[in-house]
Write a structure and sequence with these properties.
The chain is mostly helical. The chain is 82% helix and 0% strand. The longest helix has 29 residues.
Length: 137
């Protein structure tokens, strides 16, 4: 791997680094403060059809966020060793699905401001997907 190869894919690598930081922090926050997150989300969804599914939804989103972050970080190292952005691409797809799940929940809870905050993160995941897509290279 030479500097020119890294420089050519630097936007993908920086987007992957941002994704790794974002999702690892968010996912691990849910892991290490499970009860606090569960309590807040239970109240947030208390008057919605999803009220009884909060623990399962929290577990699913936590798993997806941690997976996204770890895939993005691993994808950077994978690129440095192989020159392939495939793992970064997969992290973008999982990340976009994670944000979509969060967005769905916010809309169901009628937290429109919270849903709007997720849009830039979704756009970031689309950028990761576009920049690292093996079918577009």
């Amino acid at each position: 791997m030479n500097f020119n190869d890294i420089a050519k894919d630097l936007p993908s690598l920086l987007a992957a680094l941002f994704t790794a930081i974002l999702f690892i922090q968010s996912g691990f926050d849910k892991v290490f403060d499970w009860n606090g997150n569960l309590e807040w989300l239970t109240g947030h969804f208390s008057s919605t059809p999803l009220a009884k599914m909060v623990p399962m939804m929290l577990a699913t989103v936590t798993l997806m966020e941690v997976a996204t972050g770890l895939l993005a970080a691993a994808g950077i190292f994978y690129f440095l060793f192989t020159g392939s952005l495939l793992i970064v691409f997969i992290s973008g797809v999982v990340g976009a699905l994670s944000i979509t799940a969060l967005f769905f929940g916010q809309r169901i809870a009628k937290d429109y401001a919270g849903a709007a905050v997720l849009v830039p993160y979704f756009i970031l995941q689309l950028i990761v997907i576009i920049l690292s897509n093996p079918h577009l290279r």
